Task: inverse folding
């Protein structure tokens, strides 16, 4: 298995300026007046011969010499739709690419999906035209990052939790809380790492939500100014502890191996890769829970090849393809029937694919908006554009 999601630091505030001040997500608090009127495809027609896709590296692979990596060629043979893929290196990159109208489908993470929805760049999805949607895990459907007012805007693809990694031969006693990376007196100062993105502000907010209830944080992506300032202040306290912020997972694995990093945020695949190189490292979901990500296939509101786009969305979440992508990429599959088809029969256990209790305290990335995503109406929340500015200021200080 391998993970090829090579994130770079999100530092361009202009790419997130499209967030509408009053937009929201979820069926409880979305503003219908701010939601662009875009119709879902009513029926599936003949394929147009090709489909243009924006995707994370590793999601659209075609290994003609590797039987494990054939989900693209399988699709092309069965549908007649040639796949053209553009790799998006960041969520901001994907948003910008989808705004051009040149792409039919995108694999959007939660820090991009609402921007695409409220920017009018993607259309609602007619799930009846995606037969494999029926087998998607129920706790991934109609969530705040992939639906509005009870209407689906995408097809869930996979998910993962952001874990706490530690070198078991160095960090003792074993940590149980995210407090280990925020302790100003940490004995591991200079060897702690954090994920390099504005969305990491939510990790600080999650810790404060669990440890300082007086702040009133209910959802780490819905922060009023006081709550946001508290999260940023915590990150400023943390900064002297940080040896490096990581976005390239391979560099993170190398740092764990060398001992340059001994404690900090990670993904399950990073742990697996490090352990495969005999590094004494473990990854846990701390007592506070964790942030995480759930990617969604979304169709452009200006798709030139909508029929092939729908065919792709159905194919890529089919049991066989979803199992193959999950193992190749390093994530929990979204299709409940995929686990039976993974080559590693322990894969879904490792990634907690069917363990819905495990995901109860995983707060998937979402796009912060002025309309608070936790349902509050008596205050304004800090929108994601301000998260980008705060993170840039923190990193450049």
Result:
């Amino acid at each position: 298995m391998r993970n090829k999601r090579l994130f770079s630091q999100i530092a361009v505030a202009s790419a997130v300026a499209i967030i509408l001040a009053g937009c929201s997500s979820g069926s409880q608090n979305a503003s219908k007046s701010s939601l662009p009127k875009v119709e879902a495809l009513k029926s599936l027609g003949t394929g147009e011969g090709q489909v243009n896709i924006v995707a994370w590296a590793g999601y659209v692979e075609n290994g003609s010499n590797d039987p494990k990596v054939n989900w693209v060629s399988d699709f092309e043979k069965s549908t007649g739709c040639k796949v053209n893929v553009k790799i998006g290196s960041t969520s901001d990159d994907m948003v910008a690419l989808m705004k051009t109208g040149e792409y039919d489908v995108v694999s959007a993470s939660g820090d991009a999906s609402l921007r695409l929805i409220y920017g009018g760049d993607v259309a609602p999805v007619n799930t009846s035209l995606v037969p494999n949607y029926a087998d998607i895990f129920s706790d991934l459907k109609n969530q705040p990052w992939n639906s509005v007012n009870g209407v689906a805007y995408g097809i869930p693809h996979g998910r993962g939790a952001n874990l706490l990694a530690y070198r078991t031969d160095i960090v003792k006693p074993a940590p149980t809380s995210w407090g280990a990376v925020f302790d100003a007196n940490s004995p591991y100062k200079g060897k702690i790492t954090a994920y390099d993105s504005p969305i990491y502000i939510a990790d600080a907010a999650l810790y404060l939500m669990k440890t300082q209830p007086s702040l009133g944080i209910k959802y780490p992506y819905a922060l009023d100014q006081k709550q946001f300032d508290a999260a940023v202040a915590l990150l400023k306290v943390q900064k002297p502890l940080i040896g490096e912020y990581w976005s390239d997972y391979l560099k993170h694995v190398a740092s764990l191996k060398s001992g340059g990093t001994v404690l900090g945020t990670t993904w399950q695949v990073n742990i697996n890769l490090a352990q495969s190189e005999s590094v004494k490292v473990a990854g846990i979901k701390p007592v506070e829970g964790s942030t995480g990500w759930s990617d969604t296939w979304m169709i452009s509101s200006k798709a030139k090849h909508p029929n092939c786009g729908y065919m792709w969305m159905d194919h890529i979440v089919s049991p066989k393809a979803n199992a193959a992508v999950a193992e190749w990429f390093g994530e929990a599959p979204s299709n409940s029937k995929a686990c039976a088809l993974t080559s590693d029969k322990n894969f879904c256990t490792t990634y907690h694919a069917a363990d819905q209790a495990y995901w109860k305290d995983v707060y998937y990335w979402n796009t912060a908006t002025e309309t608070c995503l936790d349902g509050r109406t008596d205050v304004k929340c800090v929108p994601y554009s301000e998260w980008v500015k705060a993170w840039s200021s923190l990193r450049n200080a």
